[in-house]
Amino acid sequence: MTGQSDSKKYHIITFGCQMNERDSETLAGYLEERGYTPVDTHEAADLVLINTCSVRDNADKRFFGTLGQIKKHKEKDPDFIIGVCGCMMQQQYIVDAIKEKYPWVDMVFGTHNIHVFPELLEDVLHEQSHSTHINVWEGGGEVVEGMPYRRLYDYKAFVNIMYGCNNFCTYCIVPYTRGRERSRDAKNVLEEVKHLAAGGVKEVTLLGQNVNSYKGGDVDFTDLLYMLSEVDGLERIRFMTSHPKDIPDKLINAFGDLDKLCKFIHLPVQSGSDEVIRRMNRHYTRDDYLRIIDKLRTAAPDICISTDIIVGFPGETESQFADTLDLVDKVGYDSAFTFLYSIRPGTPAAKYPDQIPEEVKHERFDRLVEMVNRHSLERNQAYLGRTVEIMAEGESKRDEDRQAGRTDGFKLVNFDGDEQIRPGEFCKVEITEAKTFSLVGKLVK
Ligand code: SAH
Ligand code: SF4
Ligand code: F3S
Fold first, then answer.
1. CATH code of 437's domain
2. How many distinct structural domains can be found in the chain?
3. Is the pLDDT of residue 59 over 50?
4. What pTM, to 2 d.p., does this model score?
5. Residue 305: is it exposed, middle or buried by C-beta count within 10 angstroms (0-12/13-18/19+)?
């Protein structure tokens, strides 16, 4: 018997955005330091962590559904440990609901204090009789450096550059769950990226709710991109997310200037109506937004652009929604994430009187998706017959006979490959078929 098979097993369920995925890597790092090894299901695990998201109501529902399923496991095995963390736990009414309805949960902690997880786990492991250990911090002032982590991939990595958000868009819960903006020191980011690149990572994605407002001492976001593009071995730099209210020309020019900066931007517009944008507290106009798109396409003609759009924000009229359709048609996005407005308790828009009926939201949503998909397909069709460079990312999820990879514009390409190609390798692929959400191609030797 090896020590491996004796070791305790853990499983982490992650909802939400890349911030949460990155936090889960840290939690996995702590567990592996304690000798735990990962497994794919909670049934096979001694400990499960659920890292939650609160951005829309369906995320909340999925969490409670998952917790309900896990209850059976706890009933069979009282030693099974259940921890819940992430954005939902930063809201008191959720923590209260757990205490009341799910008292068999062993630990609850929030987004600001994942570094206390090892202590909490010790407390749970050493307690004589069950209680729910709750440790959720408010606010989140400090940036904690040096936490361990277990990365999901060898060839690409997420790197936090800032935490929190100061924007308070009126629909959004994130400023309440992730606290105020704080940036990491540029030298810590640089060291981390150098370390990753030295270990074989080819692509980093810089993470923050609004990376454009990064301020690491006197290093702004664009300066940071220039610094990181000097790192040996690193081939691609991506970032998310950007807020249209602060896209300086300096950043736009970097797309023309920096080879390693991927020609891709996710630039959430949320709505094409000035009035709705104003009521969302977003601080730009549709003309400002369209001007930024023009400038980006002038600086980098092949740039791929994606966005987020909310349908049915309180008070949205049919003609304001038509402005969104019109903007989507003008921009011609490569892809767009579309959301039905979801009431988030505690946010200003939750109290707006003129909520839109569900059926109206759904009907608008369908029309929007139709337009978004039409543009995605058209944009993809422009690649037919072209040869593109991709970074291989392993077996295709859709088609096990094919490999998958991404262009620097973040287009997913499934291709007839060669088994010799390893994830993280760059190769050329000729595009033979265009679909709405992906491209198909064959390897060019
Ligand atoms: N910081 C990022 C977005 C984080 S949330 C940014 O500002 O772009 C991701 C997306 O979820 C948002 O862009 C928005 O489109 C959507 N979203 C946020 N709150 C929502 C709500 N209450 N209802 C529906 N969609 C919402
Ligand atoms: Fe939410 Fe707006 Fe902050 Fe994005 S910028 S996280 S949408 S408050
Ligand atoms: Fe969700 Fe929190 Fe991210 S609310 S979208 S996991 S910041």
1. 2.40.50.140
2. 4
3. yes
4. 0.96
5. buried
